[in-house]
Amino acid sequence: MASLQNQEWKNKSSDCCTPMSSCCLAWWCPCISYGRTHHRVKFDDDMKGYSCCNFSCVAYTSLTCLGLSFVLPMIQRGNMREKYHLKGNGCNDFLCACCCAPCDLLQQDKESKFREDEKTSLTSAQPGNSSQMQYQQQ
User: Fold this and answer.
1) Which residues does 126 contact at the CB level (< 8 Å), separation at least 6?
2) Within a domain: residue 127?
3) Rounded CA separation 31/61 (Å)
4) Would residue 51 be called left, alpha or beta, if left means φ above 0 and alpha means ψ between -120 and 50 degrees?
5) Rounded distance, CA 65 to CA 30, Å?
6) Where are the transmembrane segments (predicted)?
7) In this structure, is residue 86 part of a structural domain?
8) Among 28, 64, 111, 132, which is 20 to 30 Å from 122 by CA?
C-alpha cells in the first residue's frame, strides 16, 4: 500500500491578518480559536454541538495561566500534520506555537477549514448510485 505524500501547508503562518474576524479572535480570545479548530479537526468539520465554551477552551485557558499556552496548539499542530498529511516536524510545531501563538492558531484554523472543505467537496463530487440502469422493452 502506497503512503500519501506529505503536502505543504496551504496557509502560511505569516498570513495572520485575514480574515479579520478570525485574526481578532486569535489575538483576543485564543482559547476560542483553539477550541473551534480542535472541534473541526476532531469531528471532521461537523460544527454541530460546538460551543465556544468547551473543554478545549477551558484546558487552553488553564495552561495559559500556568505559562504553558503553547502545549495544546503544539500537539494539535502535530495531529493536523498527521491527519492531513502535511509537512513539518515536532520541532517546527514547538517553534510555531511558542514564537507567535495567535499566528499559529490562525494558521491552524484556516488550514483545518480548507482541508475539511476540500475533503467535503471531493466526497460530494463522487458519482452516486442515485439511479439504476433502465432497460426498454423490445
Assistant:
1) none
2) no
3) 6
4) beta
5) 13
6) 58-75
7) yes
8) 132
Compute the distance between CA of residue 81 and CA of residue 76 in angstroms, rounded to an integer: 9
pTM of the model: 0.82
Q: Which of 120, 112, 135 is nearest to 22 (CA)?
A: 112
In-domain check, residue 24: yes
Whether 69 maps to a domain, the answer reads yes
The structural domain count of the chain equals 1
| Residues of the domain holding 94 | 20-117
Summarize pLDDT for 58-94 with one digit per residue, the tens: 999 999 999 999 999 999 999 999 999 999 999 999 9
Question: Which grid coordinates are listed for 94?
Answer: 514547538
DSSP letter for 127, please: P
Q: pLDDT, tens digit, for every residue of 6-56?
A: 999 998 877 778 899 999 999 999 999 999 999 999 987 678 888 888 999
